[in-house]
Amino acid sequence: MLLSGGVDSSVVVHELCSHGLHPDCFYIKIGPEEEEEWDCSSEEDLEMAQAVAHKYGLRLEVVDCHKEYWDEVTHYTMEKVKAGFTPNPDVMCNRLIKFGAFHEKRGHDYDFIATGHYAQTETDNDGRKWLITSPDPVKDQTDFLAQIYDWQLRKAIFPIGHYQKDEVRVIAEREHLINAKRKDSQGICFLGKINYNDYLRRYLGEKPGLVIDIETGKKVGMHKGLWFHTIGQRHGLGFGGGPWFAVKKNLKKNILFVSHGYDPEKAYKQEFLIHDMHWLTASFEESRAEKDERGAYPITFKIRHTSSYLQGTLLPQPDGIYKIKAEQPIHGVAPGQFCVIYDASHHRCYGSGEITI
Description:
With 357 residues, the chain is of the alpha+beta class. Helices cover 24% and strands 26% of the residues.
């Protein structure tokens, strides 16, 4: 059992124990390289985890994945950001750390690894295990799990995935768990209370450049680094005479292009490509999914963590590329984001690919 100190994983412990199971609990230690400089909640997390394990008479072991995180996930994040992309460190944390580095250190001794993710699984008639969505659309975390490997999914169990968040809170309060009223963590999984821009500034510094109105070609101001901005960003740009929307980056010239006005047409796309498609269990072709007369598969998808699913189609292209066509134009499609693919009823999560423009 991966016990984080939050209410979700604590309720998982209760659920397992109430069914007569006695899981070995593990706290994965990751955090800033120099904790004394940054305000980090990891010490409180560990204390909470220890209290919950003690309440149920379970042993808790701390597994240090600090080096692996900074070697792998941080490297991935910084390389993507420097290249002008919009990465998602939490997605890679699940693949490389929670189900990766932990498995190499301790998880390989176990048949199943339980977590507090809001997700579910099901097995089809061919014995294949699929990742399926949680009934709580706001808390569903299948998009964060869409890059794990098939062998990782086969070992994963999600004991609270069938609950709504409110139900989990009720259980925690009923069982007098120490963190029943603790707020959910926000932002990047390892940063705690650290601001994401401060994190980028620490490792990438600043690289000032021009901000240009894409309609008029006139200078709007100066940015401090393209990595502080993402395509579709509406808030926090800090330029006068707004509102402004980040719509394009020129990496070679270090220029950020913005558009003036509310939801400009240039900020929307209806078609885009994805590459490096990662299939969790099986591809649409392998699962013999139905397709339309063009050879496209009806899908739902997400390009960011939201409670809503977008309708569209997925059309295979040469060289492992796929074209996404949305039913409606969508805002803020940014290269480097993961596009998470679901079936037409957003039940099964098939996997995800990286958006390329």
